[in-house]
């Protein structure tokens, strides 16, 4: 094993990642496994550097002393003495060899002056808003917007050389003007724009590539309709295939009109000037979009509107009676929305395209989403659909199922199973809306485009599949005792505690790592300027929030009993979904953090399930 070269606390010169500039840093620690030095810059930034990226201060001081010993002032003074009136006149006319020697000295002076110049760079601290995934990485960070900064820093030394040469009159003014034009701010900005307008194509295709995404466009709607038809059967066994209804019975214009009314009502709530306005993560062009956080207010307004409808004796179980028609209407609307999104993305600037949906293949980009943040004015379509129509609609559907159960089975109060399902899922939705700001740093917002996958998922899959347990209980009532209900409640509370505390711990660390309340947390520094938590929940497994999700999903299904596996479809699906997301997170984090992520995986070997996976 190679021995370390620099000791803890030693002041050395560390190379800034992505550049050729060195800055004074202090060695904080050394990892014997990865052979990386953790160094601290003067502004407090900590990075992990290789030994090849570190140099001793003496090497820099030696170079500077050499250049200063032959400074232009000394050379000019020596030449002025050789031509003084008190000396012989041999210096009055120069031979051709002396002229060449003078030119060589001049070139050497230029080179030495450039070496002696200190690099000019304003170190930046990563923004505290460089945050998170709501359901994702242990410490995810966005792509720092430093393209303009790094390019400017690469050109700055040449600008400094120009100023020094101008000071000592080592170039003609004509040359200076040419140099000024080359390194003007206009040229710098033009170069930056050229770099930004050339985003890389999506190379790593997910979901089976073009063939897989083409099949999913048909498979996802078929799965939804299959599950709903199964729940309608008296015997919802997997081997008992449902009878397909007549196609004309699946469409009703009135139902589609009600769905449109619901969608635009939520859009109206979204546009209300209430709630705080926050900035999202920096985009590839350096801009930050603004978002109004008022999802919880929209939920309150929706609850008030439903209360008025129930007060005037509106039959909310109409939703249960026409559940298939509502699902078909939502699927048709999501397909139309996806087509609109793809057509408009063809005219979007390249820097606004999604990193994960810019493959150049029509089917793949249509499915994953070609444009990252499609907006109509200030109305963000993806952000709106992510939480509003589908998530709040999920709660409304559950309430309709509860009322339908009471009417069909002549109950004065809902069954205990139905109350548990409604309560558990209501808590989950309210938590998501209360912590709405957290979604701005999820992969859905920062990486995935808005295409068929998210449109169908937000408007169809979430409200009509996530409410599967409540829909099942209407046709297949399950009686549970109070002790069993108490045990299921404990399971849900444990899952929610793991889910919420893990996310809160991560979010607090991202906002202010120096918070005294987080002094007990340990982390591994990375080259991005962020840290990977290795204590608390994130030192237990790599994705503790996923673990909490799965425990809660199990608690939502347990009130349905064990007569059929159909209510547990959501648990199976959720495990598969989170395992897929976890694999994507692993790949994403390995690319972003490199050796630091390998160190983290060694410290935290289990991904989701402790001692299992």
TrEMBL record:
GO terms for molecular function: Delta14-sterol reductase activity; DNA binding. Residues 99-110 have a biased composition (Basic and acidic residues). The chain crosses the membrane at residues 207-229, 249-272, 293-312, 324-343, 454-474, 480-499, 520-541, 561-580. It comes from the Eukaryota. GO terms for biological process: cholesterol biosynthetic process. It is found in: Cytoplasm; Endoplasmic reticulum membrane; Nucleus inner membrane. Residues 53-111 are annotated as: Disordered. Pathway: Steroid biosynthesis; cholesterol biosynthesis. Residues 4-62 form the Tudor domain. SMART domains: TUDOR. Coiled coil: none annotated. InterPro entries: ERG24_DHCR-like, Lamin-B_rcpt_of_tudor, Sterol_reductase_CS, Tudor. Keywords: Cholesterol biosynthesis, Cholesterol metabolism, Cytoplasm, DNA-binding, Endoplasmic reticulum, Lipid biosynthesis, Lipid metabolism, Membrane, Nucleus, Oxidoreductase, Phosphoprotein, Receptor, Steroid biosynthesis, Steroid metabolism, Sterol biosynthesis, Sterol metabolism, Transmembrane, Transmembrane helix. It catalyses: 4,4-dimethyl-5alpha-cholesta-8,24-dien-3beta-ol + NADP(+) = 4,4-dimethyl-5alpha-cholesta-8,14,24-trien-3beta-ol + NADPH + H(+); 5alpha-cholest-8,14-dien-3beta-ol + NADPH + H(+) = 5alpha-cholest-8-en-3beta-ol + NADP(+); 4,4-dimethyl-8,14-cholestadien-3beta-ol + NADPH + H(+) = 4,4-dimethyl-5alpha-cholest-8-en-3beta-ol + NADP(+). It is a multi-pass membrane protein. Residues 66-75 have a biased composition (Low complexity). It is an enzyme of class 1 (oxidoreductase). Residues 76-95 have a biased composition (Basic residues). One of its GO terms (cellular component) is endoplasmic reticulum membrane. It holds the Pfam family LBR_tudor. SUPFAM superfamilies: Tudor/PWWP/MBT. Its EC number is 1.3.1.70. Belongs to the ERG4/ERG24 family. This is Delta(14)-sterol reductase LBR. It comes from Formicarius rufipectus. The lineage of its organism: Eukaryota, Metazoa, Chordata, Craniata, Vertebrata. The gene is Lbr.
